[in-house]
Amino acid sequence: MDLKQIESILRNSGSANNLVLKKEIEILKSKAIDRQDEELANKLWCLENINEIQFLFISAFNNLKKKEYYKAWSDFSYIDIKLCYFREHSENYYTDSDEYGLLFIEEYSRKFQKLFPYKYFLSRESIIKKQRCSVCGTEITIRKKCKHSVGELYMGEMCVRIVSELQFLAIALVRDPFDKYAVIFPQDLEYNYGALEELLNLLETPYEKWGLTVIKRIGEKFVDARRNGLCPCGSEKKYKKCCKNTQKELIDHYAIKLNQNKGNNSILRYKEFGTWK
Amino acid sequence: MLHETNEERKTTVVSTNIGFNNLSEEFNLSQELSTELSKANFILLPEKKGTEFGNVFPEQTIKFYNYLKNKELDHQIIVDIATSDEDYQELELHSDVINICEILVRDILLPVAVNLISSYLYDLLKSRNKDKADMKVDIIINVEKDNSITKKVTFEGSIENFEKTMKALDIKNSSED
């Protein structure tokens, strides 16, 4: 398989067997490195990433279909991280015409993620004491650097820092970490995946379009609350002195809109899903 | 350093003892390093984590330092950092709040510092593909005036609000929190 054939497969949203394509790209890249053809090797690094991102998106969708929600979440999180590093090198692939489907994947990964009930994550806190360059191995300090820059491509590989000495400090509970794999699964509580379940019953393929609008509305328990009555949040204060007219009584309302030609009702009926079952 | 913040825009101004003349005592620096730092007018400062852990800088401070070094000529600044190479270490918080290390500048350079930090943050924003209203930052700038009195300006909020807020800030006449 040559470069043009690989590009052509990836333009059609990827191969059914991404491992075969991955192998083909590796072979070409290895040949490019042997010839010291850095431009081609870097191009093939981009194709490797596109192949993996497309595969992860399909895998996430299939996991959602199988109700393997955490696996799907991990796939979407990995897509986020891959795209973050890939974006700077993607000018030929991240085009307005979206030949490689990357804009679609980015948009829809975010939309799917919004419908997950996960709100809190664990995040590591540590002190990085020593780090070295992944390309040349030089130990990097504040005033001593090598000729390689983090995030740049060198002969088909992205330069990163390898941490060689680290002191672990703590685990923190956060809402928006950079990588979102460490989801909390408390004992005796079960996440409510109702919104995803509803949507996935109606989607047939990963590349099917659907719309998501997010607006704030008053949560169900606050709708009939009386000004001078007890606040529904359970604080035992008067509603007017507690949550009334604050962000606390508002919830995100997601309106999902499916393709017009999909059945009679293109908008799903209103349902409220809490974080837990 | 913050793990995360709900603030859209929070600025505080307080007096501080940190100044260009007392960095060596403040951060336990060698005489040789202190001499080097005395040539600078734009210094990156660590956060003290106590005797057990020493002084730390936020993640990616090396990237930020190199970015500023590359701007020295264009902006007539001399950048340095209050640590030796041996003692340099980064605190990794793994959160989506961007923590930039504390900075000490002469008051005349505050607008330059704000511009440089803003453009650095906007570059980061592009790579993360986030909306500028969603990306939260935590920034501390110590501004030393002619009379050697230093004001510590802390900003917590979105990148979008950082530039606007700092440009509108009147350090000389601002009241302390």
What does this structure look like?
The complex is a heterodimer of chains A (277) and B (177). With 277 residues, chain A is α+β, with helices and mostly antiparallel strands. Chain A has helices at 3-11, 18-34, 38-65, 69-86, 102-114, 194-202; strands at residues 121-133, 139-140, 153-154, 157-158, 161-174, 210-218, 250-258. Chain A folds into 3 domains: 3-114, no CATH class; 121-174, no CATH class; 209-274, no CATH class. The model of chain A has no long low-confidence stretch (mean pLDDT 88). Chain B is α/β, with parallel strands linked by helices. Chain B contains 7 helices and 10 strands. In chain B, the strands form 2 sheets. In chain B, strands 1, 2, 5, 7, 8, 9 and 10 form a 7-stranded mixed sheet that branches. A 3-stranded mixed sheet of chain B has the order 3-4-6. In chain B, strand 8 (102-106), helix 6 (110-128) and strand 9 form a beta-alpha-beta unit. The chains are: A alpha+beta (277), B alpha/beta (177). Chain A binds chain B through residues 83-84, 87-88, 106, 123-129, 140-145, 150-151, 166-167, 169, 172, 174-179, and chain B through 3-4, 49, 53, 56, 59, 61-63, 65-66, 81, 83, 85-86, 88-97, 126-129.
